[in-house]
Fold this sequence. Notes:
Elements: E1 5-11, H1 16-25, E2 29-36, E3 44-47, H2 53-63, E4 70-73, H3 94-120, E5 126-130, H4 144-163, E6 170-176, H5 182-190, H6 201-213, E7 222-225
Parallel strand pairs: 1-2, 1-4, 2-3, 4-5, 5-6, 6-7
Helix pairs in contact: 2-3, 3-4
Amino acid sequence: xxxxxxxxLVAGASRGIGLAxxxxxAPQSQRLLAVSRTFAPIGEWIQADLSxxxxxxxxxxxxxGDRLDGxxxxxxxxxxxxxxxxxxxxxxxxxxxxxVIAVNLVAPIRLAKALLPALRQSDNPKIIFMGSLSxxxxxxxxxxxxxxxxxxxxGVVHSxxxxxxxxxxxxxxxxxxxxxxxxxxxxxxxxNLLGGEAIPLTDLLKIIDCVLSLSRATCVKxxxxxxxxxxxx
Length: 233
């Protein structure tokens, strides 16, 4: 079977959404780079902490002179006790806040900048960031650093779209509600919530497939994906 992509890179590929995306794209790619701090069991694992500049540089070195068809930043983190009744902004440490902003916002900016030379070599280059409904207006999340980082990620996409328009490098942010990773499903079951409270991973993968398959003539900046029975944006 012919491969759709020469080289794809998935950041945050050790678990959750990132692992599912990496597993989905691996059979379609001649080379799949799985970037994470902890072991990623798929593709060519690059152990790197992208919240540090050294980690971003390590990834760029691994790409080398290869062309990059897709950069998919699926990584993300949030404050201690986020999305629970125990969360309190006043109790968040400065280290916690800085970590969330570094992973969710600074890292994808740095990584996109570092990998632009490789993306320019592709016939149909795509950048996809995994955002969240927490970054949408009127969403009721209380997690200050996480919401700030996800709002900021939307700003990154809007600005990069203008910056890279002439080069026809597609830049998209997907803003889902709860996604049915094993961790999320376990949380929902523990709270006796219905299956409609989470987006099936297969649906999210179909959305990513759609974005990757579009021609360079089409720009999709944002896709909001609330769960049918979950809170919308």
